[in-house]
Design brief:
With about 130 residues, this protein is α+β, with helices and mostly antiparallel strands. It has 2 domains: about 1-50; about 60-130. The protein has helices at about 5-45, 60-70, 95-105; strands at about 70-80, 80-90, 110-115, 120-130. The chain is rod-shaped, with a radius of gyration of 31 Å.
Protein backbone atom coordinates (compact mmCIF):
# COMPACT_ATOMS: atom_id res chain seq x y z
CA UNK A 1 0.00 0.00 0.00
CA UNK A 2 1.17 3.41 -0.78
CA UNK A 3 1.32 6.33 1.58
CA UNK A 4 -1.56 8.06 -0.26
CA UNK A 5 -3.88 5.10 0.27
CA UNK A 6 -2.98 4.92 3.95
CA UNK A 7 -3.70 8.65 4.34
CA UNK A 8 -7.04 8.23 2.51
CA UNK A 9 -7.94 5.24 4.70
CA UNK A 10 -7.08 7.15 7.90
CA UNK A 11 -9.05 10.19 6.67
CA UNK A 12 -12.14 8.08 5.93
CA UNK A 13 -11.78 6.28 9.26
CA UNK A 14 -11.55 9.57 11.17
CA UNK A 15 -14.49 10.98 9.17
CA UNK A 16 -16.60 7.93 10.08
CA UNK A 17 -15.54 8.33 13.71
CA UNK A 18 -16.55 12.01 13.71
CA UNK A 19 -19.95 11.18 12.16
CA UNK A 20 -20.50 8.43 14.75
CA UNK A 21 -19.56 10.74 17.66
CA UNK A 22 -21.79 13.57 16.41
CA UNK A 23 -24.72 11.19 16.01
CA UNK A 24 -24.09 9.71 19.45
CA UNK A 25 -23.92 13.14 21.10
CA UNK A 26 -27.13 14.30 19.39
CA UNK A 27 -28.98 11.21 20.61
CA UNK A 28 -27.65 11.69 24.14
CA UNK A 29 -28.69 15.36 24.10
CA UNK A 30 -32.20 14.43 22.94
CA UNK A 31 -32.43 11.78 25.66
CA UNK A 32 -31.29 14.33 28.24
CA UNK A 33 -33.95 16.85 27.11
CA UNK A 34 -36.67 14.17 27.26
CA UNK A 35 -35.65 13.26 30.82
CA UNK A 36 -35.48 16.92 31.77
CA UNK A 37 -38.99 17.58 30.39
CA UNK A 38 -40.32 14.53 32.24
CA UNK A 39 -38.72 15.83 35.44
CA UNK A 40 -40.24 19.29 34.92
CA UNK A 41 -43.67 17.73 34.27
CA UNK A 42 -43.49 15.74 37.50
CA UNK A 43 -42.38 18.81 39.42
CA UNK A 44 -45.28 20.82 37.96
CA UNK A 45 -47.76 18.09 38.88
CA UNK A 46 -46.37 17.93 42.41
CA UNK A 47 -46.55 21.70 42.72
CA UNK A 48 -50.20 21.79 41.63
CA UNK A 49 -51.27 18.71 43.58
CA UNK A 50 -54.18 19.31 45.90
CA UNK A 51 -54.91 16.93 48.70
CA UNK A 52 -58.56 16.12 49.09
CA UNK A 53 -60.18 15.19 52.33
CA UNK A 54 -62.02 11.92 52.03
CA UNK A 55 -65.55 12.31 53.31
CA UNK A 56 -67.16 9.74 55.50
CA UNK A 57 -69.70 7.77 53.55
CA UNK A 58 -72.96 7.61 55.45
CA UNK A 59 -76.67 7.68 54.73
CA UNK A 60 -76.93 11.48 54.92
CA UNK A 61 -74.09 11.90 52.42
CA UNK A 62 -75.74 9.43 50.04
CA UNK A 63 -79.15 11.13 50.37
CA UNK A 64 -77.60 14.53 49.69
CA UNK A 65 -75.76 13.41 46.54
CA UNK A 66 -78.83 11.62 45.19
CA UNK A 67 -81.02 14.65 45.92
CA UNK A 68 -78.58 16.86 43.99
CA UNK A 69 -79.04 14.77 40.84
CA UNK A 70 -82.77 14.18 41.28
CA UNK A 71 -82.82 10.48 42.22
CA UNK A 72 -84.99 8.83 44.86
CA UNK A 73 -83.17 7.16 47.75
CA UNK A 74 -84.17 3.53 48.46
CA UNK A 75 -81.67 1.93 50.83
CA UNK A 76 -78.20 2.22 52.31
CA UNK A 77 -76.43 -0.60 54.11
CA UNK A 78 -72.93 -1.68 54.98
CA UNK A 79 -71.56 -4.74 53.17
CA UNK A 80 -68.19 -6.48 53.38
CA UNK A 81 -66.57 -4.39 50.60
CA UNK A 82 -68.03 -1.00 51.51
CA UNK A 83 -71.50 0.51 51.47
CA UNK A 84 -74.34 -0.58 49.22
CA UNK A 85 -76.57 2.20 47.95
CA UNK A 86 -79.82 1.68 46.04
CA UNK A 87 -81.80 4.42 44.33
CA UNK A 88 -84.35 4.84 41.58
CA UNK A 89 -85.54 7.53 39.23
CA UNK A 90 -82.12 8.77 38.08
CA UNK A 91 -82.30 10.39 34.67
CA UNK A 92 -79.66 9.26 32.21
CA UNK A 93 -78.16 12.72 31.72
CA UNK A 94 -77.61 13.05 35.48
CA UNK A 95 -75.58 9.84 35.78
CA UNK A 96 -72.23 11.51 34.96
CA UNK A 97 -73.03 14.28 37.48
CA UNK A 98 -73.59 11.69 40.20
CA UNK A 99 -70.34 9.88 39.39
CA UNK A 100 -68.41 13.17 39.32
CA UNK A 101 -69.93 14.30 42.63
CA UNK A 102 -69.03 11.03 44.33
CA UNK A 103 -65.49 10.83 42.97
CA UNK A 104 -64.72 14.50 43.62
CA UNK A 105 -65.72 13.92 47.25
CA UNK A 106 -63.07 11.19 47.46
CA UNK A 107 -65.44 8.23 47.38
CA UNK A 108 -64.35 5.17 45.42
CA UNK A 109 -67.05 3.51 43.32
CA UNK A 110 -66.44 -0.24 43.51
CA UNK A 111 -69.53 -1.34 41.60
CA UNK A 112 -72.02 0.64 39.52
CA UNK A 113 -75.13 -0.89 38.05
CA UNK A 114 -77.84 1.16 36.34
CA UNK A 115 -80.87 -0.54 34.79
CA UNK A 116 -83.69 1.11 32.85
CA UNK A 117 -86.59 -1.33 32.73
CA UNK A 118 -89.15 1.32 31.76
CA UNK A 119 -87.47 2.59 28.60
CA UNK A 120 -88.13 6.17 29.71
CA UNK A 121 -84.56 6.98 30.72
CA UNK A 122 -85.19 6.58 34.45
CA UNK A 123 -82.61 4.27 35.95
CA UNK A 124 -82.56 2.08 39.03
CA UNK A 125 -79.12 2.22 40.64
CA UNK A 126 -77.10 -0.19 42.68
CA UNK A 127 -73.80 1.24 43.89
CA UNK A 128 -71.11 -0.12 46.14
CA UNK A 129 -69.03 2.71 47.57
CA UNK A 130 -65.83 2.68 49.56
Amino acid sequence: MSVGRIKLFLFLLSLALVVFLVDFSLRKREQYYREYLRYKEVMLLLKNYETRQKVSVDENFARQKLFEVGADFLSFKQVDVGYELKAKGLRGENTPRLIYALESAGVEIVRFKAVDNTGQGLYELELILR
